[in-house]
Write a structure and sequence with these properties.
InterPro entries: 3-OHbutyrate_DH, NAD(P)-bd_dom_sf, Sc_DH/Rdtase_CS, SDR, SDR_fam. Pfam families: adh_short_C2 (PF13561). Belongs to the short-chain dehydrogenases/reductases (SDR) family. The protein is an alpha/beta fold. It is about 45% helix and about 15% strand.
Length: about 260
């Protein structure tokens, strides 16, 4: 899989300075793609991360700041990239609360970052892909794009929206060499998730093993976290010739969560 078959392609990955986004960026770079990293900050650390990725994989990597809650900045990210053969809409945030108590500002932010940003980046990227005669759009949805959990109304609504938007994008590009698919991860072991484990251990007075198996992975039958590398490899597959007729669908990387 990791022959440099993406050499000459440029991949823009939103929300990619850590976690799933960074894992995908690494795998795309390993496959030969030049990469644009993104987040809402603009620090020396951000640009150093891009340099590190470039040196590790022998490709060009840039960091471009853009706030995914703002439509104009989403579109400007693609324009500043200058080329976008592969678009990975990964940026996302979460908040948990009952519907009557859910803060309106949190709702608006989650819908903007998790859903509307994908619309804006896709709208800006499609003309570039059409001009190039090739393109791959990979939307990072969630198991919550296919099922639901209580107290996650905004996140579930946004991720279901991402799945629907994926299908529409695929239909609008079906006769072109452009595909659009969604990856639906379950629980992925990211630094953010790792940081939550000690607090959850204290909250429930449980061991690390019990927290992982009985709280975090309660709905994940494999009782194993997915890894950022596995999500990245799935994204690389979707960019390959083997996936040329795979469009408008979802791939669940969730240890069997959505099989139940």
């Amino acid at each position: 899989m990791f022959q440099k078959f993406l050499t000459g392609k440029t991949a823009v990955v939103t929300g990619s300075t850590s976690g799933i986004g960074l894992g995908i960026a690494h795998r795309l770079a390993k496959a030969g793609a030049d990469v644009v990293l993104n987040s809402f900050t603009d620090t020396d650390k951000d640009h150093a991360l891009a340099d590190e990725l470039a040196q590790q994989h022998g490709v060009k990597v840039r960091y471009i700041k853009a706030d995914m809650s703002k439509g104009d900045e989403c579109r400007a990210l693609i324009e500043q990239a200058g080329q976008c053969d592969i678009l990975v809409n990964n940026a996302g945030v979460q908040h948990v609360a009952p519907i009557p108590d859910f803060p309106v500002q949190k709702w608006d932010a989650i819908i903007a970052i998790n859903l509307s940003s994908a619309f804006h980046t896709t709208a800006a990227a499609l003309p570039m892909m059409r001009k190039a005669g090739w393109g791959r759009i990979v939307n990072i949805a969630s198991a919550h794009g296919l099922t639901a959990s209580p107290f996650k109304s905004a996140y579930v609504a946004a991720k279901h929206g991402v799945v629907g938007f994926t299908k529409v994008t695929a239909l609008e590009t079906a006769k072109e060499q452009i595909t659009c698919n969604a990856i639906c991860p379950g629980y992925v072991l990211t630094p953010l998730v790792e940081e939550q484990i000690p607090d959850t251990m204290k909250e429930y007075d449980m061991s690390r093993e019990d927290v992982i198996n009985n709280v975090m992975l309660e709905r994940q039958p494999s009782k194993e976290f997915a890894t950022v590398e596995e999500i990245g490899d799935t994204a690389v597959f979707l960019c390959s010739d083997a996936a040329a007729q795979l469009t408008g669908t979802t791939i669940s990387v969730d240890g069997g969560w959505t099989a139940m």
